[in-house]
Amino acid sequence: MPPLRVVALISGRGSNLKRLIDAAGPYSIVGVVSNKSDAPGLAFAEATEIPTAVVQRAQFQTPTEYRNHLATVVASFTPALVVLAGFMELIKEPFLSRFPNQIINIHPSILPAYPGLDTHARVIADLQNSTSAPDSLVHGCTVHLVDDGMDTGPIIAQAICEVHTDDTPETLSARVNTYEHRLYPWVVTEIASGAISLNNAKIIVSPEAHTRAKLHGFLIP
Ligand code: GRF
């Protein structure tokens, strides 16, 4: 079976992109598209000779023109899967329907808790204001199928991590990142092998992938 063709969309640092590139095999990152020309993550693609493209909102008159062009650039790499790896904008039409059941995202919380931005700071604030046991607070990361909401698409897999009472947003973010770096390549590998399939907003996970998830400590809903 040829590797699954994956295009990554980034806006910034690109640490998840780096892990995805390093774990390629069953899948191949065939293109990286950034909406920021100075995204440091582009360097990871360039270092491994993966083609890159920059598409910036400011170059277009309307959001529709921008998203149409973004979709055309992504489509030019003929991806089977589009992974958002720190792509800091909402995926909307006319981009979304160009890649039906093909766009996934990683989000730094256990969705549906803490959608949106600044998840780590909000978790810490809730921990400090909480009257219940600190360990009742669940944090980590989620890989989900993308729909037109903000972090609302069907959940594929999650990894839970500890929150410490002396955490800062930085220490917590660094800890969650280490879980993201294991979870995202695992999910993409399972999709590439067909053990996880994305079907009309329904996620189908094989019994073998369930077993492997358990071994890694990942949760599948
Ligand atoms: C990650 O925390 C990811 O969950 C969120 O954006 C961050 C991207 O980090 N969507 P990086 O650019 O992959 O280092």
User: In percent, how helical is the residue content?
Assistant: 25-40%
Strand order of the largest sheet: 3-2-1-4-5-6-7-10
Order of helices and strands: EHEHEHEEHEEHEEHE
Main beta-sheet strand count, sense and barrel state: 8 strands, mixed
DSSP helical segment count:
6
How far apart the termini lie comes to: 28 Å
Q: Which residue ranges are poorly predicted, with pLDDT under 50 across at least 5 consecutive positions?
A: none
Strand runs, count: 10
Average pLDDT number: 95
What multimeric state do the chains show?
Answer: single chain
Which hetero compounds are present in the coordinates?
Answer: 5-O-phosphono-beta-D-ribofuranosylamine
Structural class: alpha/beta
What is the strand content?
Answer: 15-25%
Would you write up a description of this structure?
This protein has 221 residues and is α/β, with parallel strands linked by helices. 33% of the residues lie in helices and 23% in strands. The protein has helices at residues 15-22, 42-47, 63-75, 119-129, 169-193, 207-216; strands at 4-10, 27-34, 52-54, 81-84, 103-107, 139-145, 155-161, 196-199, 202-205, 218-219. The strands form 2 sheets. It has an 8-stranded mixed sheet with strand order 3-2-1-4-5-6-7-10, sandwiched between helices. A two-stranded antiparallel sheet has the order 8-9. Strand 8 and strand 9 form a beta hairpin. The chain starts with a strand and ends with a strand. Bound molecules: 5-O-phosphono-beta-D-ribofuranosylamine (GRF). 5-O-phosphono-beta-D-ribofuranosylamine binds at residues 12-17, 41, 85-86, 106-108, 141, 180.
